[in-house]
Structure formats: structure tokens, C-alpha cells
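User: Could you go from structure to sequence for me? I need the amino acid at each position, not a summary. C-alpha cells:
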């Protein structure tokens, strides 16, 4: 494997450890980041110059925490989805605040209701509110099936069309365009049209 690929993977792992240390407040996770990331990707360990480590730290801060220009310019409220496989919700906009909840559902839609630098105050489908790192949210639109009954996904929004799939409440998927009472909705490779009132995350936030 070319050397630049080793370096790319090592930096990616280093930044992952850096983010974990900041989010969980565990210094040891970050302290071993450089050596561990290099070992995992086949490079020999060495004592990196202080300048190099500081550069990597700055690079990780810019990559992980700097909010996008689009996110800074958007007016609240707006829809977003969870990007990370694990996302900590905190009681305040800082890693110093305690963790109130941990999300483990990438793609879950959330409503962003307040912006504070690199943090976002969100509301989830259950109405729970808390602060999360902005970088771990995605602008991609998603939705979750709500209600008490199974919802039909149709081939077309026109009446009398074929029912392609049925989805239970709690299923999350990608949200496409919505028109009148119907929205495009896809769960993996299974897509079609579903009634807007069967979804949380569709329409105006």
C-alpha cells in the first residue's frame, strides 16, 4: 500500500481518538492516539516531533469541530440527521457538561432549534432536547415513521396504485421530495411514496 495511504489512515484514526478523548473526557484515549493509529495501519512507531503532534491536533480540531459555512448561515429551526454512529447529547453546549443521552442511530432525523458556535441544540422525534457537536450532524434529509399503525409505501402517490412495502413505526429512512400529502421515502433499497402525516421530519420544521 502506498505511503500516502498509510498516512491518510493514520491521521483518520488519530482524529477519531482525539474526538473520543474530547467527547468522553478521557485523556488516555488521546494520549495513545499517535502510536496506536500508526501501529494499526502497518507503520512503524516512532517518537513524533512536538510540532508534528501539535499540527495534527490543530488539523483534527478544524476537521471535527469547525461547523460548515452552510450550517452557520442557516436559520433555525431546520432539519438535520445524525451523521455519527454514536452521538452524545449533553445538557449544555460544551464537552464540560454531562452527557444526558447517547444516540446510536445514524440517519435519525432531528430538528435544530438553536446554534452556538460548534454546537447545536436539537430536538429528537420524542421531543427530547439537548446539545450535540455540530460536525456530527448531516444536512441530509431523513424521516422516521410515526403513528400506531403500519404505513404503506406505494409505487405512486396516485390513488389505487400498488403497495410496494409496509413499514412499522420507528423505521428511519431517506426523505426525498414531498408534494401535497405524499413524500418520497427510501429505506435502504426499498423506496416509494408514503403519506406525509406518517413521517416525523417531513414538512416545515
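Assistant: Here is the amino acid at each position, in order:
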Amino acid at each position: 500500500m502506498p505511503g500516502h495511504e498509510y498516512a491518510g489512515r493514520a491521521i483518520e484514526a488519530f482524529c477519531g481518538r482525539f474526538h473520543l478523548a474530547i467527547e468522553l473526557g478521557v485523556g488516555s484515549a488521546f494520549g495513545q492516539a499517535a502510536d496506536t493509529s500508526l501501529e494499526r495501519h502497518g507503520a512503524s512507531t516512532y517518537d513524533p516531533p512536538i510540532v508534528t503532534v501539535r499540527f495534527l491536533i490543530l488539523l483534527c480540531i478544524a476537521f471535527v469541530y469547525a461547523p460548515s459555512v452552510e450550517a452557520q448561515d442557516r436559520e433555525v429551526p431546520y432539519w438535520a440527521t445524525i451523521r455519527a454512529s454514536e452521538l452524545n447529547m449533553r445538557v449544555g453546549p460544551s464537552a464540560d457538561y454531562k452527557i444526558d443521552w447517547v444516540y446510536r442511530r445514524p440517519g435519525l432525523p432531528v430538528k435544530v432549534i438553536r446554534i452556538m458556535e460548534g454546537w447545536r441544540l436539537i430536538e429528537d422525534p420524542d421531543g427530547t432536547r439537548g446539545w450535540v457537536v455540530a460536525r456530527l450532524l448531516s444536512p441530509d434529509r431523513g424521516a422516521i415513521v410515526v403513528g400506531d399503525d403500519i404505513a404503506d409505501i406505494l409505487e405512486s402517490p396516485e390513488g389505487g396504485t400498488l403497495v410496494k412495502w409496509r413499514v412499522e413505526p420507528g423505521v428511519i429512512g431517506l426523505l426525498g421530495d414531498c408534494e401535497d400529502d405524499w413524500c418520497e421515502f427510501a429505506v435502504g433499497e426499498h423506496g416509494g411514496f408514503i403519506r406525509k402525516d406518517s413521517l416525523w421530519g417531513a414538512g416545515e420544521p
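One structural detail worth keeping in mind: The radius of gyration is 21 Å.
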